[in-house]
C-alpha cells in the first residue's frame, strides 16, 4: 500500500511501520511534507550515523569499527570529505553526511493473542524439556538462554512454546539468522504454526519489505534496520559465520532488542565464549543431545589420503574417495559432497560425474550439479536435490547448515582446509541421517593430515552421543 | 596484505624478480574479478569503439549523415554483467572507492589514445542533476575525470530530469538537450563518463560545447554497451 494513503488513514499504521526502526531518510518512504512534520514534532529524531571520536570510527548501523571497511568520498553537496561505511553499503550508504532516524512517536501496542499456536504436532521428551526452559526464560524475562541442540533435534518446534508465551503477553518477537536459507525454510513453518499472527520474512530480495509485523524473521543485515524493537529475540545458528560477521550479528542483535528483553540463542556448535559462560554459570542453557527421531548422530569416519591436495589440484580424485564411492553401504542414498573452494568444486564436477556414471550411481550427467553461494540457480538446484531429481550435489560450505535432506551420505574433500572449522564440520556431519526412515547415513572426511578442527568436531559429536545415550 | 576492493578476497601477488625489483602498479582487483572484465580488443568502430568489423558502424554512419558533433569515443571495456554490477555498486550504491577499479586502465587509455593532443585537451565531466546529486553525494563522471593528469573544467550544467537508464533509445534521442553551458570553452574537450550506450548523452553535451565555440569534442568512457 502506498505510504501516502497509509498515513491519511491511520497514524497507528505509521507508528507500526516506523517504531523500532533506525533508518536513513531514503528508507522512509513518506512524502516530504509528512517527513518534515514528523521531524519538527520530534516524532522522528535524527542521530549521527557514524561516530567519529578521537580517531576511532564506528558505523552506528552495523557496528563496524574496522578501518578497512571505511572509506571517504568528496561530498558534492557540502563540499567536504565524508567517511562512509563499506561494510553495510548494500543496505544504502551510511555516511557522515546523512543521519539515521529513530521513531519517538506513539508506542505500538501489539495484540495479546489468547491462543496463537495452531500447530498440532507433539514434542519428544528431549524437545519438550528444552522448550519448557526457553518458555520459562521468556516468562521470567531472563536476559538470555542458550539451547545447545544437535543438528536435526527439531529446533524450530522447540521454539513454539516460547513464541506462544511471548505472543500471549503482546510482545514483539524477531527470529534472526545469518543464513538466508534458514529464514526461507523457517518462514512457511512458522506461518503454519501461528496462522492468525502477522509474520514477515525479511531478506535481500524478499517479498516482504515493510517489516511492521509482530513476528519478524530476518537475516543479520535486515536486523540492522531495527533499534530497540523486540521483547524477544531468537538467534538461530549463532555461530554460522566467520568471526567478523558474527560480530556484526551480535551488534545488530543487541541494537534490535529492547533494553529489557530476552535473547534466546540456538546452536549446534556454540563458540568458545558461550561455552565458557555456560561453564561459569553465567548463561542459562539447556542441552538437546538427541535428534527428534531419537537416534544418535552419525560419527564421521576419517580417511587419510596422502596426496589429496595435489591430486585435487590436478583434477584427480583420491583412490580412497573412489573406493568409498563404489562401496557405499546404501547406494540409494543421495550424495552430498563438500569442497573448500568454488573453483575446486567446478573443476571436480566433471571427474566426479564421470566416476558416478561409470559406477552406475547416476544414469545421466545432469543428475549431478555443483552449487555455491553466487550461483544464480542456487535455490532451484537445492530444490531439485530435495525433490530427488538430482542424485548428487557438490557444494561449498553454503549448504553446511539449515537445510534438510532426508537421506544423504556426506563426504568432505580436503576436510583439513581452513574453511572447514570445527563448527562447520559438525554441521556438515549433521546433514546425514536426518529422517526417521533412514537415521544413519555415512559421513566421511577425506584429509591429508588431521587438523585440530577435524579432531574437535569428531569429539564434539562423540560427546553429544554420550549425553544422548544417557537419556 | 592486499584485498580486492570489489569482492574483498585476498589478492595474491606472486613474488618474482620483476615484482620484487620494480615498482609495480598497485592491483586493486583480484585475479578473479579482473578476469571477468572484458577489454574491447580487435576491430572496432573508429568513431564509437563498438566491436565492429568495418571501419564505421551503422549507427555512427547515421550520426555522420545528421552531422555528428563528436570526433571519437574511446571505450575500454565491453559492457557485460560484471561491469554492470561493478558500476551499480560504485555509482548507485555510492561506494566511491570503487573508482579505483578503473584508474590504471583509464589512465593508460588516456595516454595511449589521446597522446597526440593530450596536452591541449580539457577534461569535461558530465554533470549530475541536483536531485541525483542529493541521492548519490558525488558525480561519477567527475570522479573519473579527477583520476587523469589533465585540467578539468566543469562548464556544463544539467537541468533536472528523469533517469537515463530507464529510457529506451528512441525516447533518449528525441528528448531535448538537458545540458547548458556556464562558460564557453575554446580548447578541444574530452568528455569522461562511465557508460556509452547510444552516445546521445555525449553528443548532447558536445552539441552545447561546440555551439559555444569548442573546436573538437572527444570522449573517453569505461564501458561500451
UniProtKB/TrEMBL annotation, chain B:
Gene3D superfamilies membership: 3.40.50.2020
Classification via SUPFAM superfamilies: PRTase-like
InterPro entries: ComF/GntX_DNA_util-trans, PRTase-like, PRTase_dom
PANTHER family noted in UniProt: DNA UTILIZATION PROTEIN YHGH (PTHR47505:SF1)
Family: Belongs to the ComF/GntX family.
Name under which the protein is recorded: Amidophosphoribosyltransferase
Amino acid at each position: 500500500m502506498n505510504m501516502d494513503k497509509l498515513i491519511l488513514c491511520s497514524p497507528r499504521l505509521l507508528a507500526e511501520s516506523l517504531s523500532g526502526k533506525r533508518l536513513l531518510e531514503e528508507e522512509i518512504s513518506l512524502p516530504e511534507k509528512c517527513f518534515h512534520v514528523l521531524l519538527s514534532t520530534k516524532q522522528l529524531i535524527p542521530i549521527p550515523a557514524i561516530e567519529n571520536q578521537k580517531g576511532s570510527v564506528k558505523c552506528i548501523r552495523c557496528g563496524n569499527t574496522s578501518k578497512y571497511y571505511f572509506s571517504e568520498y568528496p561530498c558534492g553537496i557540502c563540499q567536504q570529505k565524508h567517511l562512509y561505511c563499506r561494510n553495510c553499503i548494500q543496505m544504502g550508504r551510511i555516511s557522515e553526511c546523512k543521519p539515521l532516524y529513530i521513531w519517538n512517536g506513539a508506542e505500538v501496542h501489539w495484540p495479546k493473542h489468547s491462543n496463537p499456536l495452531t500447530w498440532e504436532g507433539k514434542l519428544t521428551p528431549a524437545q519438550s524439556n528444552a522448550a519448557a526452559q526457553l518458555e520459562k526464560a521468556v516468562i521470567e524475562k531472563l536476559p538470555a538462554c542458550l539451547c545447545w541442540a544437535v543438528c536435526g533435534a527439531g529446533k524450530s518446534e522447540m521454539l513454539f512454546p516460547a513464541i506462544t508465551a511471548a505472543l500471549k503477553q503482546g510482545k514483539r518477537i524477531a527470529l534472526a539468522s545469518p543464513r538466508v536459507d534458514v529464514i526461507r525454510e523457517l518462514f512457511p513453518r512458522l506461518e503454519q504454526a501461528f496462522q492468525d499472527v502477522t509474520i514477515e520474512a525479511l531478506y535481500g530480495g524478499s517479498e516482504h519489505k515493510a517489516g511492521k509485523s509482530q513476528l519478524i524473521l530476518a537475516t543479520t543485515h535486515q536486523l540492522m534496520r531495527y533499534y530497540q524493537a523486540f521483547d524477544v529475540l531468537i538467534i538461530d545458528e549463532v555461530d554460522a559465520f566467520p568471526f567478523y560477521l558474527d560480530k556484526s550479528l551480535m551488534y545488530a542483535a543487541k541494537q534490535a532488542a529492547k533494553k529489557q528483553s530476552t535473547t534466546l540463542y540456538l546452536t549446534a556448535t556454540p563458540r568458545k565464549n558461550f561455552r565458557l559462560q555456560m561453564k561459569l554459570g553465567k548463561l542459562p542453557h539447556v542441552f538437546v543431545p538427541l535428534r527428534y527421531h531419537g537416534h544418535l548422530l552419525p560419527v564421521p569416519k576419517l580417511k587419510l589420503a596422502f596426496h589429496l591436495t595435489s591430486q585435487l589440484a590436478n583434477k584427480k580424485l583420491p583412490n580412497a574417495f573412489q573406493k568409498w564411492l563404489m562401496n557405499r553401504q546404501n547406494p540409494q542414498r543421495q550424495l552430498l559432497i563438500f569442497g573448500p573452494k568454488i573453483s575446486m568444486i567446478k573443476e571436480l564436477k566433471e571427474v566426479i560425474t564421470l566416476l558416478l556414471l561409470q559406477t552406475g550411481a547416476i544414469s545421466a550427467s545432469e543428475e549431478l550439479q555443483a552449487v555455491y553461494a553466487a550461483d544464480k540457480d542456487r535455490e532451484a538446484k537445492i530444490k531439485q536435490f530435495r525433490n530427488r531429481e538430482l542424485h548428487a550435489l557438490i557444494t561449498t560450505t553454503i549448504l553446511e547448515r539449515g537445510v534438510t535432506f532426508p537421506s544423504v551420505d556426506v563426504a568432505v574433500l580436503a576436510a583439513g582446509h581452513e574453511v572447514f572449522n570445527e563448527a562447520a564440520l559438525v554441521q556438515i556431519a549433521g546433514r546425514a541421517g536426518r529422517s526417521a526412515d533412514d537415521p544413519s547415513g555415512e559421513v566421511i572426511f577425506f584429509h591429508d593430515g588431521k587438523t585440530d578442527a577435524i579432531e574437535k568436531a569428531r569429539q564434539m559429536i562423540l560427546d553429544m552421543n554420550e549425553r544422548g545415550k544417557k537419556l | 596484505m592486499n584485498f580486492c576492493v570489489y569482492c574483498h578476497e585476498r589478492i595474491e601477488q606472486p613474488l618474482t624478480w620483476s615484482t620484487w625489483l620494480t615498482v609495480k602498479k598497485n592491483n586493486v582487483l583480484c585475479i578473479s574479478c579482473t578476469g571477468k572484465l572484458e577489454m574491447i580488443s580487435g576491430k572496432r568502430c573508429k568513431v564509437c569503439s563498438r566491436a565492429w568489423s568495418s571501419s564505421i558502424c551503422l549507427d555512427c554512419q547515421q550520426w555522420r549523415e545528421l552531422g555528428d558533433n563528436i570526433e571519437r569515443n574511446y571505450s575500454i571495456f565491453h559492457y557485460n554483467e560484471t561491469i554492470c554490477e561493478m558500476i551499480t555498486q560504485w555509482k548507485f550504491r555510492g561506494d566511491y572507492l570503487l573508482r579505483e577499479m578503473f584508474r590504471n586502465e583509464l589512465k593508460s587509455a588516456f595516454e595511449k589514445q589521446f597522446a597526440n593532443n593530450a596536452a591541449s585537451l580539457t577534461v569535461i565531466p558530465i554533470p549530475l542533476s541536483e536531485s541525483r546529486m542529493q541521492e548519490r553525494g558525488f558525480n561519477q563522471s567527475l570522479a573519473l575525470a579527477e583520476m587523469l593528469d589533465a585540467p578539468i573544467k566543469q562548464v556544463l550544467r544539467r537541468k533536472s530530469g528523469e533517469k537515463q537508464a530507464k529510457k529506451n533509445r528512441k525516447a533518449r534521442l528525441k528528448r531535448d538537450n538537458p545540458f547548458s553551458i556556464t562558460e564557453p570553452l575554446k580548447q578541444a574537450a574530452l568528455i569522461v563518463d562511465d557508460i556509452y550506450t547510444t552516445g546521445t548523452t555525449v553528443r548532447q553535451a558536445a552539441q552545447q560545447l561546440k555551439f559555444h565555440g569548442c573546436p573538437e569534442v572527444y570522449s573517453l568512457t569505461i564501458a561500451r554497451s
